[in-house]
Structures are given as structure tokens and as C-alpha cells.
Fold this sequence. Notes:
Order of helices and strands of chain A: HHHEEHEHEHEHEH
Low-confidence stretches of chain A: none
Distance between the termini of chain A: 65 Å
Strand order of the largest sheet of chain B: 2-1-4-5-6-7
Mean pLDDT of chain A: 91
CATH architecture of the largest domain in chain B: 3-Layer(aba) Sandwich
Low-confidence stretches of chain B: none
Order of helices and strands of chain B: EEEHEEEEEHHHHEHHEEHEHEHEE
Oligomer: heterodimer
Amino acid sequence: MSTVYTRPLARLVEQLxxxxxxxxxxxxxxxxxxxxxPESEVQALAHALLDAKQQVGQCSICFHLAAEPTCEICRAxxxxxxxxxxxxxxxxxxxxxxxxxxxxxxxVLGGLIxxxxxxxxxxxxxQALIRRASQPAIQEIILAINPSIEGxxxxxxxxxxxxxxxxxxxxxxxxxxxxxxxYADEVTLARALEGRRELD
Amino acid sequence: MYLEQxxxxxxxxxxxxxxxxxxxxxxxxxxxxxxxSNLLEAVELLSTLRSHRTSRDRDLVLDGAPTAQITxxxxxxxxxxxxxxxxxxxxxxxxxxxxxxxKRQLDFLGYLNAVxxxxxxxxxxxxxxxxxxxxLDGVLIQLExxxxxxxxxxxxxxxxxxxxxxxxxxxxxxxxxxxxxxxxNQQLATLGARVIQRRHRMLNRLEPxxxxxxxxxxxxxEHLSLEYEPNVRxxxxxxxxxxxxxxxxxxxxxxxEYHQATSLxxxxxxxxxxxxxxxPARQYGSQGQQRTLVLALKLAELQLIEEVIGEPPLLxxxxxxxxxxxxRQNQLLDAIQDRFQTLITTTHLGAFDAKWxxxxxxxxxxxxxxxxxxxxxxxx
Lengths: 200, 380
């Protein structure tokens, strides 16, 4: 590789290749593109990278990404204080926020219980979650965690932990909207059958 | 179903080989290590996404190439299906149906059904319980693609639970987070119970078919039985009791599991007892009798898959036909006739009954190249 690119270019390609979803070909394309841009634009990119890294930390309340000690969602005055939605990762907060349907607050666990990866309950933000759940204002905690093996264990674990404090629910899993029953895969269909409910 | 075309690119020792299958039987003849079995392995991969010869995709890619590709055109009653599987040295796979990548491997299964019969299958009788579980799971995946997902989930819980037990053991603390262990136990028992029930149900359907074939081949003198012996001992006619029973047996073994730091209860330790006239087949009889047994199992498998999916699956005979005596060859031929598309590998045509060469197309295989061979009627 190093003989193909001149040294500084090789370093750039190598750094880009460390990014998730970026293979050697994409890294090369990105690097060559960056070289073609005006210097001011490249500087803006470099600054944006550093600024984001230096300024974005975790919200001290919900552990979502935040540039301040607390995040925008925790500071927002018009959000429902009585509902907490527990998710594994900040990405899930972003996905749920895009729906614009949820008006409560969040709690980011920072992972899922996975003994294989050395992650137990102590590595997650569970102590903070218990403190929040025990506040009298909280009326419902929604667990919105992937239905994987690790997600299932984490959901059940948290469920047991929080049941004494408040009402705990979990999101439903089933067919995508606009989807045809006939085209749904068996796993999703089986899951949707399991989670069926009484017609009101 | 009928496999019309197969295209291998950088797969094993094939650089770029395109094959059109023009007859119900295809015989691949060649010396050892020329690529005969590799071609059958490609079909097996399209069928089950697994190879019985290796678990590392690196082995499947031609030396020096980054990726291998298997492309096939399959004719089914419902229409034509294009399948493509790309394998990388890194282990990443891309599976495509009609040129569209499937999201999960599960969605690729069930298009091409095949029964594989190779000389290695004698290990079904002689080998350990693991061989029989692998065989059982392979048949089930073809019958119920959902089972592939179930099994993968079970294995994931098993890995996590074992990792948890190892952590307890390394910290010398059997009381580490008992609440978490309870959850792993419940997940193992929930998924494990489903695995057990599906294995039980499948063996119940397979046994009478295998018995009929076995009697036909052995001349009605011997009685075969396939007895499922789940590691979780339980009366399987009462499925609702299986889950609590599973948990109870885990409880009994809790101390042993802590000390050995591994899961001792569950379908990962199941066994299938093959017996002939009430004697374990492993101890019973000659190699010939063991071959009869395996042949009966394979024919039963063929029949069951056809019954369930409603179309005859492919039959892959890897280096095994020449090992069967003429009587067994003829039994097999009668069973498959021209209904089952059959791919056969052999080192020489001489051992075949002439009837096998009728309606057969012959290719010579040499160093990863196929060439058509004109059949000389006197060969038989």
C-alpha cells in the first residue's frame, strides 16, 4: 500500500479506513476528494472533527450526547417529565426523536448486557437509572431495546430492577407499516403473533 | 426443482467455470483433488449456507483472490430463481436472490434444497453425537428455514451463558449477579425447548420413512430405529412441561456448571441413537450394514424434504456410489429414477451399473476445469 500512495496521502487513507463502513476503496475515494477541495473547506472539516470531539460529551442526567453539562432534551421545558424511555445507545435516541411522536425524556444505557464482551450491569448506567426511576414524578418507563439475545436479557433485567418503583413497559415488535403480511419474514411474523393483543 | 446453470468464480480451485446441466444425472469424473467435490460443495452452500468440509470461508476462496462467487439459476415449480453467494476471505458474505441482497441469511435458505451423501456420512453411524446433531440440524434447516434462526439464537445464548459462568468461575464467586444468571437460564430453556421440540417432531416423521427404506435395502431382515435422546430428559408428549423441566435440571447441575464453567444442560448435548435390532448401530454389523443404514437415512431425508416442500430436492452423491454394491446402487436408482436431479462424483465410471449412465451427462474434471465427455455405450 505505502508505495502506491505518497506518505501523507497513505496516512489519510489509513485513518479514513478505520471508520465504520469504510473499506479501502471508499477510503481512497474520500481521501482523493479531500485533496481536491479548497484548503478552507478542508480546514473547516478538520476543525469540525476536533470541535465535535472536544465539545461533545455525555449529558449528566440521561447520558445522551451533549455539548453542555446536560442535553437539549433534558433541558427542554415542554417535555413530559413523567415518562422515561430507556435505550441502549445515543443512535436510538436520534431514531426515536426523528419520529417526533415521543414527548418524554430518555435514558441511554451505553450498551447491553453481554458477558462475552465483558459487559455486565455495572458497566451500564443503571445506578443513575434507578435514581431517576425512584423519583415520584416518574409514572412510566418505556424500554425500547433491540429484540436481540442481549437486548432481551437487558430488557428483562431492567424490568425486574425497576418494577418496584414504577410502571414499566416495553415497545412492541411486529410488522412494518405498509408491509404486506404475505411478504413478512417468518421471524417477524412469529414475533408479531407472540405480541398480539385484544381488539378494543 | 432443477439446477439449470452454475457459475463458479474464484471458488476453491475453480477460476471461472460455467456449467449448464442438461440431464437429470450429471456425473463428474476425475482423479482425486481435481475439484469434483468442490462443485458439489458450491451447491451445498447455496442450499444450506454451510459446508460440511470447512467452517472458514477463507478455505473456499481461490488462493490469491479476495472473493469467491457462486451464481446459480434454479428452476422451481413456481418459476425461475437466481441465486448468488459472494464469499470473502474475511468471512463476510453477501447472499442475493434475483440480484437483490437479502438482509438476513435466513432469507436465502429454502430456495435450493439438496440432500448430500458422501463417504464421510458413515461418521453418522461411527462418529460422536456431534455428527448426528449436525445432520439433524441440517435436515431441519431445509424443512423449516426458521429453525436456522432459532438454532443461531440458541447458540448465542449458550455462548453468553458460558461466558457468564466463566466469569463467575474466574472471580471465584458462585453468587455473582444471580439475577442475571436466572435470565440466561430462562432464555436458554425457552429457546432450547423449541429446538428440542422441533428435533423431536422431525425425527418422528423421518423414522418410519427410514425404516421402510432400510427394510427394502436389507431385505426385511433387520429393524432400524432412530431414538431421540434429548439431554433434557422429559416425556416429549407433554411439551408444556418441557420448559420447567429444563430449568429444574439446570438447577440440579448448578454446582457442576459452576465448577466446569460451562453449560451442561440443553440440546447442545443431545444424542440420536441409531439401533438395528435393538443393538447400537455403531457396534452392530459390518461396514456394508452401516452403509445400508446411512443410505436408508439419506433416502428418508430425500423423501421427507420432497413431502414437505412439494418438489423433489437435488441429490448430491459425493464419491459414494462406487462404494455401494450393485444391489444398493440399484435400490438407489429405483428410488431416484429421473425425478431427482442428481450430481455424482467418481474417480472412475467402471464401477457403475450401466443403468446409471442412461440419462446421464458426463463431465471430466481436471484442475478446476470441466469438459464434456461423450458417453461410449460400451463403458457400462
